[in-house]
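in:
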């Protein structure tokens, strides 16, 4: 175990003592890690952590860390958990619970999740507009429950990603939001947004699409800017990018051979 993992093998952006988390975003960092250093992620220990974080599965109430409801769960962590468990029965169960709770991931017990209607949307939007210049934690620290229907609801781009990941058909609005967000991430996204977009592209197998190629082309830069050069994920993604595949034609046997090699300086 390296010094960026906790006792559940979750990854973090800052060094740990090997036991306790050093961030509140262990699930999303681990989702990145499963593409870069999959052998370092222990699925059984991750599941143990999720069970300790689970407050109420049916209400999709999950804490970021065991026995600690604050800060509340974020959209990043929701995507991290469901990314880690894609193609598993447990992931299917969590996905269905999130969907049945109207894509609202709030884990605070005082909030009862209800379907969106025009009144709830307008009320929440009005509150969020009033605090648009304040820190995002204001909404839960000040217990602005009427804002929770939007503040803790996944945006359409994330819903598109999760629907595709779990075999549901997204609607046109969700599709448009996803591609608009991806386009923005490629040309004008912030550091965190670019890495999240990278995860979505990898999970959905979109690496060979026009936008996917642009996202993958700058993955080394994105991880370096977000996590720094010394982070284990950054170092390992650099190694992955050094692995090249070349084809050579054997004139004698009249067939192609693929040769994997690690590129070195000067090649």
């Amino acid at each position: 175990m390296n010094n960026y993992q906790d006792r559940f093998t979750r990854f973090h952006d800052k060094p740990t003592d090997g036991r306790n988390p050093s961030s509140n975003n262990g699930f999303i960092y681990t989702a990145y890690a499963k593409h870069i250093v999959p052998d370092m992620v222990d699925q059984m220990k991750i599941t143990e952590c999720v069970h300790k974080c689970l407050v109420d599965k049916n209400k999709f109430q999950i804490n970021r860390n065991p026995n600690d409801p604050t800060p509340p769960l974020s959209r990043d962590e929701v995507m991290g958990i469901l990314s880690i468990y894609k193609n598993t029965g447990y992931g299917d169960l969590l996905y269905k619970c999130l969907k049945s709770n109207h894509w609202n991931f709030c884990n605070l017990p005082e909030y009862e999740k209800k379907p969106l209607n025009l009144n709830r949307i307008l009320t929440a939007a009005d509150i969020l507009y009033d605090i648009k210049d304040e820190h995002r934690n204001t909404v839960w620290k000040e217990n602005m429950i009427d804002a929770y229907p939007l503040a803790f609801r996944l945006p359409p781009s994330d819903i598109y990603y999760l629907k595709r990941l779990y075999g549901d058909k997204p609607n046109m609005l969700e599709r448009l939001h996803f591609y608009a967000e991806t386009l923005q991430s490629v040309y004008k996204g912030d550091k965190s947004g670019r890495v999240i977009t990278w995860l979505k592209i990898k999970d959905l197998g979109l690496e060979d699409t026009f936008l996917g190629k642009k996202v993958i082309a700058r993955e080394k830069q994105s991880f370096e800017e977000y996590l720094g050069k010394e982070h284990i994920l950054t170092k390992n993604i650099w190694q992955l990018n050094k692995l090249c595949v070349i084809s050579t034609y054997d004139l004698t046997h009249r067939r192609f051979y693929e040769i994997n090699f690690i590129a070195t300086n000067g090649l």
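note: Residues 243-267 have pLDDT under 50 and may be disordered.
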